[in-house]
Amino acid sequence: MNIFFTKTNYKFAKNANKSNSAVLTFIPDTINMKKTALITGATSGIGMATAIRFASEGINLILCGRRDERLLELKKKLQPKVDVHTLCFDVSDKKATFAAISNLPPEFSSIDILINNAGNAYGLDSIETGNIADWEFMIDINLKGLLYVSKAVLQNMMKNNSGHIINIGSTAAKNVYKKGNVYCATKHSVDALTKGMRIDLKEHGIKVGSIHPGLTETEFSKVRFHGNKEKADEVYSNVISLKPEDLADIIHFVISRPYHINISDLVAMPISQN
Ligand SMILES: NC(=O)c1ccc[n+]([C@@H]2O[C@H](COP(=O)([O-])OP(=O)(O)OC[C@H]3O[C@@H](n4cnc5c(N)ncnc54)[C@H](OP(=O)(O)O)[C@@H]3O)[C@@H](O)[C@H]2O)c1
Description:
By secondary structure, the protein is of the alpha/beta class. Helix content is about 40%, strand content about 20%. A 7-stranded parallel β-sheet has the order 6-5-4-7-8-9-10, sandwiched between helices. NADP nicotinamide-adenine-dinucleotide phosphate binds near residues 43, 65 and 66.
């Protein structure tokens, strides 16, 4: 089946029958219907702010992360507004990722929006002194984890011939900074992967794009410096940084465009950043 797009809010499915003539099937766009979003890394920072913003816009949520108590707390907070389901798993654990996403309860099994947000930097070291365990964490989470989650969710989106995937990259996907070596490499990979996914999934009616944040004040630096709060706080002192809510606002803008618009690649930096 080939999907092609005509007027705003509509798509048509073109089925080739045996005589190879085209049959046009009208599929109403789901733009005004209640949507479900799966957000990875919803326990903190950009992911949590996006969950809160989506809930205020009436989007049902599947919240993911490894810290179950935070997921449950957020669920409690957002449930009066929308339906919420939580999935506690490590995205770098292939088996756990597929098990969690393939066993969603029926009311959450149709996913319209995937926000591939889970990710972190570990360490800030020159390449010759870099810690191999840190490198492996970043590759396993930022790259392989994003692939596992996408593959698991795609099984579902392909059935519906629709969906929207946003990969959270970074300005580190576009530039490389001193001692950022492996983190930058994973985010450059996310950028390339986004382009590849978009090409492959277009014919299935699935939109793919990336949003690349610049410096944003979250738990990111605390994780990067292995829990050293003083070092982490230093990163955000004396500079203007983005707030996670700024990103949530941008992410909501991107996912709420009419069906025929795909904002494919967006960089958002604080005014202070080069
Ligand atoms: N903050 C920035 O300056 C900045 C700039 C550019 C890009 N980004 C990107 O933005 C995204 C969100 O980061 P953030 O700034 O919001 O950082 P954050 O506050 O540290 O949040 C990271 C989130 O990812 C989740 N996560 C990390 N490893 C995971 C794993 N193995 N399995 C499942 N979930 C995992 C964490 O949840 P659990 O710990 O509960 O699992 C947490 O919810 C990341 O992809 C990051 O690279 C951030």
